[in-house]
Amino acid sequence: MLMLAWVALLWLLEVVDVATGHSLDPYGVSPRDTDELADVIPAAFLHFGWDHVAANSVPLLVLGFLAAVRGIGRFLAVSLTIIVVSGVGVWLTAPEHSITAGASGLVFGLFGYLLVRGFVDRDALDITVGITVVLLYGSILWGVLPTSSGVSWQGHLFGLIGGVLAAFWFRRTPVGRSPRRARLTS
User: Fold this and answer.
1) Number of domains within the chain
2) Key word Transit peptide present in the record (predicted)?
3) Which among 3, 118, 116, 131 is positioned nearest to 59, based on CA atoms?
4) What is the pTM of this model?
5) CB neighbour list of residue 79: distance below 8 Å, 6 or more residues apart
6) Is 175 a member of any domain?
7) Maximum C-alpha span of the chain
8) Which of 29, 42, 58, 172 is the most exposed place for a label (fewest CB within 10 A)?
């Protein structure tokens, strides 16, 4: 239900944006202007047209659902991490005089999170999910390369990085095991 509501919100925001003459578009991220840092989070919910929101909807539903299965609190923390890392990465590296918005940074981040989570948590089921995600969506990795004009490869790349970081930051300790401790010799 969470992911259906999330995607419905993206569509609702696009309806509002179109109905108001694209008044929400300026809430995308403009690079290296400190006032624009406040737009890092809203930018992940805004899109530049119907095709844009449609392209992000299905992968966000699927990857978001798979990421949320392990717990809503963890999922929300992972999503916030991805959104912030992606948005700040865009803010630091996007071309001057550009505006970046869209959920694709989150999509790439969830992809990276799901890909790495099983290995970090040492969970066979999550490793299987990661392999399945690669088989279904692996071709999106081309999106981290600067191959298409008008597409924020920066948002994709930093989203992916944010997802990998989130897999480590929000890893869970396997049941019955204490966290690994470094072994030091003298």
Assistant:
1) 1
2) no
3) 3
4) 0.89
5) 64, 67, 106, 109, 110
6) no
7) 69
8) 58
- Taking CA 97 as the corner, what is the angle to CA 91 and CA 99, rounded to the nearest 5 degrees? 55
185 domain-assigned:
no
CB within 8 Å of 75: residues ≥ 6 apart? 2, 64, 67, 68
Let me know if residue 174 belongs to a domain. Answer: no
pLDDT tens-digit series, residues 135-170: 999 888 888 888 887 888 999 999 999 999 999 999
pLDDT tens-digit readout, 14-37: 999 999 999 999 999 999 999 989
Domain limits at 76?
Answer: 2-169
CATH at residue 113: 1.20.1540.10
pLDDT value for 177 = 57
